[in-house]
Amino acid sequence: MSDLNATKEEMCEIGRRMYARQFVAANEGNISVRVDDDAVLCTPTFFCKGTMTPDDICTVNMRGEQLDGKRKRTSEVLLHLEIMKERPEIRGVVHGHPPHATAFAVAREPIPVGVHPEADVFLGEVPIADYATPGDDRLAETILPFVHKCNTIVLANHGTVSFDVSLEQAYWWTEILDSYCRMLILAKQIGRVQQLTDADCRGLIELKKRFGLTDPRMGDDFADADLTTNPLFRDTWAQAGAAARAFSQADIEDQLVDKIARRVAELIKQ
Q1: pLDDT(186) > 60
Q2: What are phi and psi of 108, to 5 degrees?
Q3: Strands 152-155 and 128-129
């Protein structure tokens, strides 16, 4: 089997996983893989990602012009191409509507950090990009402020897009994100979400370094910041119409009071 055919098979496998996990329904979602400097394989439009075969995969150039394929390429490949142009190391892009993560997109609720180790290590902070009509050129523009700072983005009222040096990894980030968002929703139903301490979060940042992962919070700008109360993308929330409501600052402040109370109690005992 040629490398190109193997890549098409992998795209079909990822499509089946997305469909089986209900990250996409009917003809939703799209997948792409960059195969050389000016050729990208992508999924077709109006076609179920759970039933694709390699013959259904399209080829486009970096301008979005279709080069090969019996079906029409997805209109949202322009979003994928913009990511690849900005970050040439990116080879795989996955876009879907995973229900729990998309619930945050629809509510325009920022996804809290400093809660679950795997989410912090593998995703870091996940931004919310402003809304744009699917398939519109402006959709690609909405992710530009974030694409160099993360590998996963929530698209307001739409879904998610994740990307990395391989298609497999790009898919992993979608799966981890939806699993994490599901945990948050379930925890909120039980009571409130308990955040980790700043020291705990810094321990996770060190773990990311050991794994060879990057995170803007590793920089000097965050050396003296409390990583639990200083969201990296807070200044962009207003542009997307996002605000912490379900997971609000008040919850964080209540937890801070609890932390202080516990610390005072410990000091009294000493």
Answers
A1: yes
A2: 55, 50
A3: parallel
